[in-house]
């Protein structure tokens, strides 16, 4: 029997044949460890566990990457609220998340990169986006210019007003006066008092959430990845505008991960 695998491609809404290769890279967006795991996490990670096991069953040598987003607005906010050091909060919440996944019998990923360990690489990628003319500097921050991609928003199924409204709701700060376009998003930003800080060509600060997975996926698997997955909340058009056409050419500039949806953002086929 010829084995085949079709997955639901979030960017097209259609089933897509996955090319089976001897070595495959599966990147599943990991958690931002600032609170307890819930059933939504269980659903996501059990689902991709089944996928990884199945690919291995078909004979593929699967590199399964699942990041830990330990540099992010939410984790820094909660650390401030609880008066805990953000690294400590991330470690303890990640430990309890792993214990919960172990209890479910979910295999551990082959690689578990922490965003904080890849900041120099993120800086390199932000620089590449600036060099490519798709990002701009303002007051110690670097923004991605969404208008640089004509496909931007086309697949989001939302009109511009709705995207702006949702960006405001989800911490995207569309009213930031430094932005050329309210939908542009931050690739690098100055850190607030007490938050982690790294030196960069644009001043001390920290990476924006959108660049993190992009950098980690590029460094660990290389692009294009075979399957890029994550919680459905990351890909829903109600969460964020989609990024429909990342630069997957190894020679091209890296692309930010908007709402963590790349063309291979997938969920198992319903049939
Ligand atoms: Zn991600």
Task: Tell me what the structure shows.
The protein is α+β, with helices and mostly antiparallel strands. 32% of the residues lie in helices and 15% in strands. The chain has a single domain, classed as 3-Layer(aba) Sandwich (Rossmann fold). It has seven helices and ten strands. The chain has a four-stranded antiparallel sheet. A three-stranded antiparallel sheet has the order 2-1-10, with helices on one face. Strands 4-3-9 form a three-stranded parallel sheet, covered by helices on one side. A hairpin with a 2-residue loop joins strand 5 (135-138) and strand 6 (141-144). The two termini are 18 Å apart. Zinc ion binds at residues 29, 213, 230, 257, 260.
* Main β-sheet, spatial strand arrangement: 5-6-7-8
Q: Count the E strands.
A: 10
Shape: globular
**What is the CA-atom radius of gyration, in angstroms?**
18 Å
Mean pLDDT: 82
* Termini Cα gap: 18 Å
Largest sheet: 4 strands, antiparallel
The structural domain count equals: 1
Bound molecules: zinc ion
Query: If helices are DSSP runs of H or I spanning 4 or more residues, what is the number of helices?
Result: 7
Q: Provide the CATH top-level class.
A: Alpha Beta
- Share in β-strands: 15-25%
Multimer state? single chain
CATH T-level fold name = Rossmann fold
Q: Uncertain segments of ≥5 residues (pLDDT<50)?
A: 235-251, 258-271
Q: SSE string, helix = H, strand = E?
A: EEEHEHHHEEHEEHEHE
Specify the CATH homologous superfamily.
HUPs
